[in-house]
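Working notes for the structural subgroup meeting. M.R. asked for a predicted model of this chain before we commit to crystallization trials. I am recording the input and output together here so anyone reviewing the notebook later can reproduce the run.

Input as submitted:
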Amino acid sequence: MQPLIRVESLRKHYRDGRVLGSGHIVSAALNEVSFSIAPGSTLALVGESGSGKSTLALCLACLERPTSGRIWFGGRNIAALDEKQLRAVRPQIQLVFQDPASSLNPRLTALEIITEPLLLQQSWNRRETQERGFALLERVGLSPEMASRRAGEVSGGQRQRLAIARALSLEPKLLILDEALSALDCSVQAQIANLLLELQSSFALTYFFITHDLAMAAHLAEEIAVINRGRIVEQGIPEKLLGSPEHEATRCLVAAMPQSIVTSHTPGAC
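Returned structure, recorded in token form:
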């Protein structure tokens, strides 16, 4: 099976623009990053803060230009497309952020938040747009009464459900979840994680799940990649990474996990 997305030797360098013409590289946020994700599967990217996770998310979502490398999606290297060409790609790759309050317009109602991308695309009439908005509200576990409420009037878990519904409105192929569960308490995290699994099964979605939580990555993903200082230093199935981590960065992440979770993902465990 061909991967839905394949990243090859991706680099992202930030330069100091304060000195005209200096071209001085301040930092290498990503360095020779390569991986692929099969359709309908989940790859989790795990790493500490500042390791390059969010930069990679922005590059995949076509919101940042990589310095070099290739991102193959739908048979095209989207890293080489111009802005006009990217407009056709962006609806297929949607990004859900850690803090939905900062990514949702506080002036819009829940229904308006979900349907805004549809109106911008101008591919549906108003009745179809409204129907799809209400259907998505229900699909993410929000009642129709929520439609008239604004983002600031609902709980954090409800806002994240709303952000997921908005991301699904354009029927994307790839959903990038950038620390999408980390701002929620444990019980709500579990609810949203289960919702993501249900949606993936129903819509054949492909997830790129970015987190610092190795336990949640093991719960959601078929495969985990560990990023450290802009490089992917280890990659494999959860059982392998948790049972016999090879890189020091992975060992540190495993050591921070509750032993019960490590044991449950170790081969041969009950």
